[in-house]
TrEMBL record:
Species for this entry: Defluviicoccus vanus
Protein name according to UniProt: Cupin domain-containing protein
């Protein structure tokens, strides 16, 4: 949950999946912090907006069935993932497992991952619990975001 203040810009947490120089994947807890108080136009009151980036993108909605697991893989493109319902997990090759529910945010930037000693590459993800996970995914088409590191969006 993001605390809203009319004077101090908010900070919005997200998980950033990324690849180090050796090809191992990790998750870092980061924050979006470039919020500016502005109107969206017309007579709309000012609100806090972080105009993160301008790039070609695709938006898709996914419903992951109960028990679904996407075994070890890289994110197909740099992408923002926001669970809308249910719970979803992401596990990286460093052993970190993060579970995210509605409104939490993850950025998938592990496109340069390499297999570890067990042949695992990138991350695995799946549903948690007895309800499907509903996700909104914004895939970035611009290659400059491939392999983006934590802090790239601060």
């Amino acid at each position: 949950m993001v605390a809203i203040d009319s004077v101090q810009p908010p900070r919005m947490p997200y998980w950033h999946v990324w690849t180090d120089e050796a090809g191992a994947t990790h998750q870092s807890h980061c924050e979006l912090s470039a919020f500016r108080l502005e109107s969206m136009g017309g007579k709309a009151a000012a609100q806090w907006n972080d105009r993160l980036l301008t790039a070609a993108s695709s938006v898709l909605f996914s419903v992951l069935p109960v028990g679904w697991v996407g075994d070890w893989h890289e994110n197909p493109k740099p992408q923002w993932i926001v669970p809308l319902a249910g719970v979803w997990f992401v596990e990286t090759t460093d052993g970190t497992r993060v579970e995210m529910g509605p409104g939490e945010i993850s950025f998938g930037g592990d496109q340069r991952a390499r297999p570890d000693k067990n042949g695992c590459v990138g991350h695995r993800s799946g549903t948690v619990g007895d309800v499907p996970a509903v996700l909104m995914v914004v895939q970035l088409e611009d290659d400059r975001f491939i392999g983006a590191r934590p802090g790239a969006f601060s």
